[in-house]
Write a structure and sequence with these properties.
Layout (H helix, E strand, L loop, with lengths): L4 H4 L2 E4 L15 H6 L1 H7 L3 E4 L3 E2 L11 E5 L6 H13 L3 E6 L9 H6 L13 E2 L20 E4 L4 E4 L14 H17 L3 E4 L33 H11 L7 E5 L5 H7 L9 E3 L22 H15 L6 E2 L9 H4 L8 H13 L4 E5 L20 H12 L5 H11 L36 H6 L4 H14 L1 H5 L1 E5 L6 E8 L2 E8 L5 E4 L8 E5 L9 E4 L4 E7 L1
Parallel strand pairs: 1-2, 1-13, 2-5, 5-9, 9-10, 10-11, 12-13
Antiparallel strand pairs: 3-4, 6-8, 7-8, 14-15, 15-16, 16-20, 17-19, 18-20
Helix pairs in contact: 11-15, 12-13
The chain binds 1-O-alpha-D-glucopyranosyl-D-fructose (TEU) and calcium ion.
1-O-alpha-D-glucopyranosyl-D-fructose binds next to loops.
Amino acid sequence: MEKRWWKESVVYQIYPRSFCDSNGDGIGDLNGITGKLDYLKELGIDVIWLSPVYKSPNDDNGYDISDYQAIMDEFGTMEDFDRMLATAHEKGIKIMMDLVVNHTSDEHKWFIESRKSTDNPYRDYYIWRPAKEDGSLPNNWGSCFSGPAWEYDKTTDMYFLHLFSKKQPDLNWDNPAVRQDVFDMMNWWLKKGVDGFRMDVISLISKEPGLPDKEPGINGYATFNVSANGPHVHEYLQEMRQKALNNADTITVGECSGVTLEEAKKYARSDEKELNMVFQFEHMDVDSDEKAGKWTTRKMDLRDLKKILTRWQKGLQDIAWNSLYWENHDQPRSVSRFGNDSDEYREISAKMLATCIHMMQGTPYVYQGEELGMTNIYFDKLEDYRDIESINYFEEFTESGLMTPEHMMKCLMLRSRDNARTPMQWDDSKQAGFTDGEPWIKVNQNYKKINAAQQLEDPDSVFHYYQKLIRLRKEKDIIVYGEFEPLYREDEQIFAYTRKQDQEKLLTVCNFSDKNAEVEVPEEFKGAECLITNLGRKEFEGKIVLNPYEAFVLYYKH
Ligand code: TEU
Ligand code: CA
């Protein structure tokens, strides 16, 4: 397998609004990030994925961009950005930008022009359609944030497409001028010295010709994923590779909603004609409901999770490259979702989850606070929520009678994106050391117990466990490149697998349950060395009984 630095790296995602506020306005900012680079250096990560910092009216917290070449007022200035980039580089940390080009803000100058008249030069930068003959919407597609994906604009008596909020009109990638403008913008950032891009919903950029109606979901609209993996998406990404990405040594990951294994082999094929890797979502849907999607209180069945991750591990082996993640700014906290956030098991289960994901094949991503075992916030009042998705769906589902307010509130508590967006917990001072002012979203009240300062002091903390996993990756090539093979596929409590490469092998065993679990350590690991474990076990031979959420990794060299 080809060796690549981006395969050997660990990426850390920063959601700037919630990371660190340097000036007391309650909103995290670029200078706040610069001040915490030593913390990240200490953790040992190689690359930062920076969620959007561009100029934005913040309808969707920066994922609605009104100027790709300017910094959001609340986050600072371009000089602040340049200083952050230079300081990161001095410390050997790379910066990966969030490229949000499926859509812009409706306040972007292209859209302001586009909506003026049907013959404006920017008209075809977006997707405009008249109503159907009977006066109904152009098609039945829905927005990811509830309601239809079409917004009426009276100036030209037409609708524009928005797969996300109505302040996020979709760009028309079939227009070569759009593509060229995007590539020019990417080159401008590459010239500045950024090291790559995480590409927001890049799987959605090529829309099916004719924009046909699709199977409707629970609220009567087809999901935004109907636009995934469209007819020209690979062609456009290959063009992007040639016209922009090849101008630098980049790391790229496509956020690919609706991606299948077969499609991922095209996006992330090892011939490097498109992207280095993709974020797939199958394991994020493991606790979804067939009809209501994420808005459910369902718990996952471990066997489903194993089946999904095993399929991706084996399916991409030697063909393409995986990204590995439990969390990001769109998902609830993993320790609350896949582990156990009770006082008794929070730390142990956070370490178990970290072991499980970091020992697989692929590039691991750590989302801010995950390395502390930060938990869901479980807001129980709508007014505490800030996320457009949570607020819109609460209104739509309860007003239409699809769900009772009580049930919908329970779903939000478990699934809202705001669970991951509460401020980073730096220390036990007021507002968790995130800000001197009033934070834009409430701080989780468990910050006195769960915070970075305390964990930096404690050699057994979740932080130091992540640090060790990251260090091990630098010491043992097999953690990056070894071939994956699952064990005990039908076991309902244990996720175990091996990695093999030449004379070396690894065994990872994780108990995902709050009960003891019996496991037989394979003969071939007799006498193996333990690389890491979350409960201090010393004996690893034959039949052993694992404690709740126990995990360990054995290493053997012939
Ligand atoms: O997310 C798009 C996406 O497919 C989802 O992760 C989606 O937001 C989630 O499933 C809803 O529950 C990206 C960004 O990561 C997200 O923050 C933006 O809101 C969205 O695109 C629009 O830019
Ligand atoms: Ca600030």
